[in-house]
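Reading group handout, session on sequence-to-structure problems. Before we discuss, look at one worked example. The prompt was deliberately terse, the way you'd type it at a terminal:

> structure Glutathione S-transferase N-terminal domain-containing protein

The input record follows.
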Amino acid sequence: MKLYDAPWAPSPRRVRIFLAEKGVEVPCEAIDLRTGEHLTDAYLRINPRGAVPALKLDDGEVLCESAAICRYFEAIHPEPSLFGRTAIQIGRIESWTRRIEGDGYAAAVYVLRNTGAAFKDRAIPDAGLNVAQIPELAARGAIMWEAFVDALDARLADRAWIAGDDYSFADITALVTIDFARAARLAVPEHLANLRRWHGEASARPSATA
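And the output record:
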């Protein structure tokens, strides 16, 4: 088994934090995104999309999406539970994870990939596609981000963690999203005290440095 990783990319970080919370160690191989190693023939044979992370299993099968990789490890290492134990816990965590991905992470991606010079003609993270940047999507992303952080701040007004009493995959996803958004110059405003409190506590967990 091997995890193809990239130290500063958000999706691999989500897996590393998850594994750290589980106390699971997996051999890793770093892929250098800055030099384009993810677009080389060698890596494209592992993941034809040229994206990270990718988990190569002992039998040679490869899982290529961070959430799927985390689901895999939850199934074989169920404790501590990060996707929930009861039906309502599972539903809450899934609901908030999808909202964070669809509203927050997508907003940051829209802004970064449609403004960053490094993503010229690569506005979609797929090695097989050449897609021009669309400035209007960056503007939409900025509006989405404001609504996202406001909603998350309201959610955290009367609870320690996003989906319930315990730290979960939803919190991991939100932490990675908020930290990644800095690359797109998107931030949490000072007046959102609940969200800033939560971010400080999530960032203080040992797993956050994984």
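Points for discussion. First: Residues 87-113 form the longest helix (27 residues). Second: Helices lie at 10-22, 41-44, 66-76, 87-113, 135-155, 169-181, 193-204.
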